[in-house]
Design goal:
binds magnesium ion, Dna Ligase, domain 1, alpha+beta, about 425 residues, six-stranded antiparallel sheet, binds adenosine-5'-diphosphate, Rossmann fold
Length: about 425
Amino acid sequence: MKIMVIGSGGREHCLAWKIAQNPSMEKIFCVPGNGGMSEIGECVTLHSHSEMVTFAQEKGVDFVFVGPEGPLAMGIVDLFKEAGIPILGPDRKASLLEASKVFAKRFMACYGIPTAPFRIFERYEEAADFLRRREDYPVVVKVDGLAGGKGVYILNDLDEALDALSEIMVHGKFGEAGRRVVVEDFVSGEEATVMLAFDGKDYLFLPSSQDHKRVGESDVGPNTGGMGAYSPAPLVTPQVEDRIERKIVHPFLEGAMKEELWYRGILYLGLMIDEYGEPYVLEFNVRLGDPEAQVVLPRIQSDWVELGLALWNGNLRDFRLQVNNQSCLSVVLVSQGYPGHYETGKKIEGLEKRTEWEREGIFLFHAGTEKRGDHFYTTGGRVMNVCALGNSLEEAYDKAYRVISHLSFEGIYYRKDIGFRALRRNSR
Ligand SMILES: Nc1ncnc2c1ncn2[C@@H]1O[C@H](COP(=O)(O)OP(=O)(O)O)[C@@H](O)[C@H]1O
Ligand SMILES: [Mg+2]
């Protein structure tokens, strides 16, 4: 079996690691991959999706896994599908569930999926008028298109809201992505992530998780790509999961069928759970979350390639997902200054015992790294995920931070409070 993994972050390293456990694995091509992935597969730089298809044909690739949303939104699934090469993910139209917040909100409204009440605007003046007449703050303004996690504004009063709107719609900060905006009610509660595997007809739940987006401890400071995560999220009780299934997943299935969305892969629900345990969809993502994948995949005992084949073949109904009942916690090591300006090219020290750690259930999933000779160097803001499995979240926390104390590079920064909400809940 030959597999191609597209992407270069912690999520993709984790995917490649999981895929490598398949007993009939011959070779994994990582496009473009990173330092950690270079120890599992062959890293290849290819410049376009059609080059990837040609490469896959020449090498006899059997299956393609895509990490990030960008290629999916550009229609990479359509291309591979036309070439007859199995690939997971939504086609270009279905990827609008993530790539267009307007499409997603209309879809939710149409099929009765609980989400914040909203309005859509294409012109600054109309949106500004609406905000001027509004009394309810905070309000949330979202750029329609993909914005790398920077397109959502939570605004406390009219002045802030008008400034944001003008940045997006008058000054064109997001270009075409900001041509339309969603203005929606602020929903209070606690966030959680639930991902599903979906073959177009049937679905199954992957373990729940929660991530930490803010750079600073206690969740303060600017948003990042993610500073850590853990699974399960104790907030997602069986009762909450049941509501997610009835109120969100069932109408989603109905919508996907009626709209004839071609979608075989992972669906990510970004949820707000209110104080009564009612779930609201903040957003859909059409792929695994990063850093959520890094705490969910280590808990899955089933083979990921077999799951992929079941999804591609539409046989999910016959697939049994085995999940261990351990907790997994991941801490992201970043370069000082991230998510603002940071330096790269720093040598990472202390990785010698990584194989030994892996036997203890502690995994280092690389993000911005490269391997030169026998050493690893930083190449990005998010450098590495230190993930640990434990019989409790407390144990996973202790294991992850114990290993981190052995790792260093110039300017290393990480949060020391990953999992605090769940740990607090457990100690209550
Ligand atoms: N309606 C809302 N009420 C409260 N917070 C929200 C709302 N919508 C988004 N947020 C916050 O903003 C973050 C980013 O919004 P999201 O819709 O997930 O967009 P993206 O991930 O594309 O930036 C969420 O994780 C959540 O913290
Ligand atoms: Mg989000």
